[in-house]
Amino acid sequence: MSTPFYVSPQQAMADRAEYARKGIARGRSLVVLQYADGIVFVGENPSRALHKFSEIYDRIGFAAAGKYNEYENLRIGGVRYADLRGYTYDRDDVTARGLANVYAQTLGTIFSSSAEKPYEVELVVAEVGDSPEGDQIYRLPHDGSIVDEHGSVAVGGNAEQISGYLDQRHRDGMTLAEALKLAVQALSRDTNGSEREIPAERLEVAVLDRTRPQKRKFKRIVGGQLSRLLEAGASGAGAASTATSEEEDGAEE
Fold it and tell me: pTM of the entire structure?
């Protein structure tokens, strides 16, 4: 009779964490930044159908890096949680903190279960407040821990290098064009320090805009509006104000 192969719990958890990190690292990075009027989500995504960013509820947005089928299941679960809680209690009872706790429990249970592999995903849950001080951004790694972020956050394959770049250059009160320019610059940097160009058609951009009169603050930035913002960020603050005044044109709900 053969002796069962023993692996210590610490080693088993380390192996599962390494497996999840390698899976996440194969995906493209994305960034989430605060700007003067809300929160912007920016990522490189050649697909127009498989979104990295989505609306969860009135003021709450969702971003994910890693395996699409796994984070799409989590997104759908989050929408169901938010709809049920908002319908049963009150719309104001649906918060990013509550949603992050739900995701943390789900990811933590899957990560610690030996019956299934860990999810190869890293999530960001963001909620826009009435003022910048009320904004909330939570990062959830594969193990279900919750990290309260401020200003900017990056997830995905090259997140550590991108986060360092953003931490040095992000500032409070940036316009949307300035924040978008910074995000694209951060995503354009390769691991060897060189830069590459990311065309507008390969970018996925969305915002939680606190200035929108509607209850739903999430909108996608596409087409001509995205091109104008990229040009404004490149040409300076004067053009940025012009693009901001036109930002409702071509927006997708």
Answer: 0.88
